[in-house]
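>> Question from a student workshop board

For tomorrow's exercise we were told to take the sequence and the ligand below, predict the bound structure, and bring the output to class. My setup keeps failing. Could a helper post the expected result so I can at least see what it should look like? The ligand is nicotinamide-adenine-dinucleotide.
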Amino acid sequence: MPLSILLNGAKGRMGEAIARTAGELGLSIGAALDAGDDVAHHLPTTDVIIDFSSHRATPALLDLAVTHRKPIVIGTTGHSADEKAHLMKIAGKVPCVWAGNFSVGVNLLFALTRRASAVLGSDYDAEVVEMHHRFKKDAPSGTAARLLEIILEERKLDASALRHGREGITGERTAGEVGIHALRGGDVVGDHTVMFAALGERIELTHKASDRGIFARGALRAAQWIVHQPAGVYDMQDVLGLK
Ligand code: NAD
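>> Workshop helper replied:
Here is what the output should look like for this input. Compare the format with yours to find the bug.
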């Protein structure tokens, strides 16, 4: 029996990409829902939920997933760190894949960033630059947030090290800070660069997405994977076996 997928945020850019890609892969979207639709009504006949909607939708959707014991794939971004920490505890009650980016290339970028952060000491200044289309509602992107988390983890720093853009008389850059810069414009699907700059050399790791199909394929792969897993929160590194 093919999986019956409930797609939340179906009228959005990602929702449309997922529906299109599901068709190409021979998967069926059992319920394509958007704001105002009755999710609970469709859950009894759903095998797995895929959510690419709004950060405001996540708490109620997760509660429903737990009540109905349904696996869930969450691609929505824009949650604050506190919100996400709270939601993660609820998400762990069902099988859940939560990823700020579902592309295979970006997940390799995560692994390369971890390796570079470990090898290059704090005299290599770390900065993250991201660019997205003019319609994006949150900044920095979920992917940039994950790249920053990785750098902070490897350098044993906390969030107070982050510098969101710079303006005015900032003083010289300190070794312990990590910069993040969010550019917005046009129809850019998603560019991320992690830069490590020392005196005399600079390393840049860059990923550029040109088609939302990469996130859609990853999310559908995650949906097929998560239905066979026990309760717990997983990420795309788990789905791809990169851990
Ligand atoms: P979008 O604005 O084009 O679409 C969002 C859709 O969600 C809209 O149709 C909107 O009506 C709907 N929506 C809003 N509130 C809702 C609710 N309460 N219940 C159901 N639907 C609701 O945005 P998009 O570009 O499709 O992105 C959607 C989300 O996915 C964003 O948070 C974005 O950052 C994220 N995203 C994640 C990845 C990833 O790989 N994790 C990739 C791209 C986008």
